[in-house]
Amino acid sequence: MSMKIMFVAVLICGFASVGVTAPIETPAEVQLTGDWTVSVTVPGSHPVAAEVEIPGPDIVTVAHEKYDRLPDFDAKTSAGWRRGVRLKGVVAAECTVEALLDPESLVIRDGLEPEAKTFKKGIDYEADLVSGTVGRLPEGEIAPDQPVYIDYQYAKQRLDSVVLSDDGRIVHKMGTPHASMPEPPALEPGEIRLANIYISGRLNALTNDHLYPILETVYPEPQANSTSIAEILLPKTLEKLESGESLTILAWGDSVTTFNRYQTMFVERLKARYPNAKIELVTEAWGGRNTGSYLSEPPGSEHNYQEKVLNKKPDLIVSEFVNDGGLSEAQVEERYGKILADFREIGAEWIILTPHYVRPGWMGLSSQRNIDDDPRAYVKGVRDLAKKNQIAVAEGSLRYGRLWRQGIPYITLMDNNINHPNMYGHKLFADSLMALFPKSE
């Protein structure tokens, strides 16, 4: 791969959040010049240029990490984080972060003393060296309830920034390392972020996929016009918000909705925008399931669709189903068409929340850059269905697809490094929901 790969960082005029008094209006050129060096040029009447050295990954050495017992290694599951005990350094919520573990560093012993027995991989234990999980082999020498001590090395992720300082210098600022959710460094007054550099774990060198020039500082909200989506497609909801008549909102979804984050933010913002609003929020969510799961549940079950969704007779239903992401356009047309008919029969208005981006490999993505367009057929199916049937769509997907432009690899917003957004990720959902409603005067 050529190291002369160039990017353009568009610096947004009026970067008021960092107190810029003389915002840069010309682009900054960001270019790889070596394994760990980046050249940055800000052109203009007084151009500024610098070559910046980026520190390599943060390597952590773990010694004698104790586990009271090892489960049997489960080679049958396709989920690597479920194959055995999760090494603590690479844990991300209920999962692990792939490729952080140095596979050659793993050593398992039966004690702390120098003469402690060292167990053998493939004989006494097995390990998923990509996912960072370990389990005993029943035919080996690790007893079912035997404590073990594990040594290993792993790399934390990091999101550094190249910054234009208030005195006109181009400098490197190191972000906060974290296994799954690294954060970029905070800016001082007068500083402008030119690019983020994503250290995605164990790396031998940077590539273009690790460079995130700042192309925009915020999501480009549509210009306010005379008529909002809510006025056209959610008139009953809007009328109740404005009049103060009781409004019931049902948040219906999968594990993302079980966290009660985006829907709570949404309702709080509605109340702030409509001071007279009387809103009851009801959440019906089922982790690890999808709309088909609900439709298949028999009467009397905990998540029966008729009893837990339709019989609630909400005024507004907000649905979030990232677990429907594997549906084809035809399947969306069939299943969501039935759901639409059911909702209209009970008089409920509907907002479909398009899903966040998930683990890149699951979406067929080879990079977290240049991903404005969601590749999932499900998302296209939802948009087509909504357009044909006048359904409101809150575009969470569009906001996630542009994060790279803001210098953010979207996977760094996932609590579990796969598909569970953190608080900022849920804020993006709330933003997309509020964008449907008229803006305050």
State the CATH topology of the largest domain.
Rossmann fold
CATH-level-4 superfamily name of the largest domain: SGNH hydrolase
CATH architecture title of the largest domain? 3-Layer(aba) Sandwich
How are strands sequenced across the largest beta sheet? 18-17-19-20-21
Number of spatially distinct domains: 3
Structural class: alpha+beta
CATH class of the largest domain: Alpha Beta
* Strand portion: 15-25%
Instruction: Please estimate the helix content.
Output: 10-25%
Short summary:
The chain is α+β, with helices and mostly antiparallel strands and 441 residues long. Helix content is 20%, strand content 25%.
Would you write up a description of this structure?
With 441 residues, the protein is α+β, with helices and mostly antiparallel strands. The protein has three domains: 103 residues, no CATH class; 99 residues, no CATH class; 206 residues, SGNH hydrolase (Rossmann fold, 3-Layer(aba) Sandwich), CATH 3.40.50. Helix content is 20%, strand content 25%. The chain has ten helices and 21 strands. The chain has a five-stranded parallel beta sheet, sandwiched between helices. Strands 1-2-3-4 form a four-stranded antiparallel beta sheet, with no helix packed on it. Strand 7 and strand 8 form a beta hairpin. Helix 4 packs across helix 10 and helix 7 crosses helix 8. The N terminus is likely disordered.
